[in-house]
Amino acid sequence: MAGTAAELWRYPVKSMLGEELPSAELVATGVAGDRGWALLDAESGRIASAKSPRLWRALLTMSAVTDGTGVRIVLPDGRTVRSGDAGADAALSEALGRRVVLTGTRPDGATLARAVPDQVLAAGVTAEVEDEEVVLGQGSPPGTFVDFAPVHLVGTATLDAIAEAGERGVMEAARYRPNIVLDTGGPGFGENAWVGRDLEIGEAVLRVMAPTPRCSVPTLEHGALPRDTAALRAPARLNLVEPVPGLGPRPCAGVYAQVVTPGRVNAGDAFRLL
């Protein structure tokens, strides 16, 4: 398998919209600056995540970009706040309706709530449904707020397969929040077969760890993108697999990877499985 890197993405603040990059430095923790910040829910002590859409889907109406050593966030009303601003936490809390603290330091044992996806599909994004508690970064070096692994990859053939199974005939990569979109041929969900193999891309080498289980986040509104339940229903029909032993079958799209050899990757760089 060979192809090119079609898109590169960084999400400076967990669960907020991110920034497309022409070039990215891959380090041990993933794309440099990716998920380096998050909001801490002052009430629960958990990390705020759109995986619990009843509470946090509004995070996907905010966008974040790197700003020197910090981040700059654009709120839904167009106001801008920066990490380090005296009023940043108050402005974010007002916009979300819950008291939050913007932090660049992941607490020991940090967790988030992941609403059971099937229940969200059945009951809607405003319903109270069961949550699963997820410990952050179990497959990644410390220092960021990634869900599991440092890098998330998805192939264009997988996105095309999901689009063909949906009603709109298109499926935007941004819904799945990948770091690298790979221009792939062949059938959809071919990334499943990459698990355990190394992938060379630009100057970097990645090791594919597991298929990426999907939650309800891809179905939600992302900025101007409308809600689309096919983003979860289609993988549930087409690619229900067990990403890691003991987890049970989950709808998956794309794969998680760790960084074996750090290096720079540019949009358009070739990749190949080793």
Features of the shown structure:
274 residues; alpha+beta; seven-stranded mixed β-barrel; three-stranded antiparallel beta sheet; 5 helices; 14% helix
Map the helices and strands.
Elements: E1 2-10, E2 19-21, E3 23-27, E4 30-31, E5 38-41, H1 53-56, E6 63-67, E7 70-74, E8 80-82, H2 88-96, E9 100-103, E10 111-115, H3 117-123, E11 131-135, E12 151-155, H4 156-165, E13 180-183, E14 198-201, E15 204-213, H5 230-238, E16 240-241, E17 250-261, E18 263-266, E19 270-273
Parallel strand pairs: 12-13
Antiparallel strand pairs: 1-2, 1-13, 1-19, 3-4, 3-18, 5-9, 6-7, 7-8, 10-11, 12-17, 14-15, 14-19, 15-17, 16-17
Helix pairs in contact: 4-5
Q: Summarize the biggest pleated sheet.
A: 7 strands, mixed, barrel
Q: Give the H and E element order.
A: EEEEEHEEEHEEHEEHEEEHEEEE
- Oligomerization status of the protein chains: single chain
What is the distance, rounded to the nearest whole angstrom, between the alpha carbons of the first and last residues? 9 Å
What form results from the Cα inertia axes? globular
Strand order of the largest sheet: 1-13-12-17-15-14-19
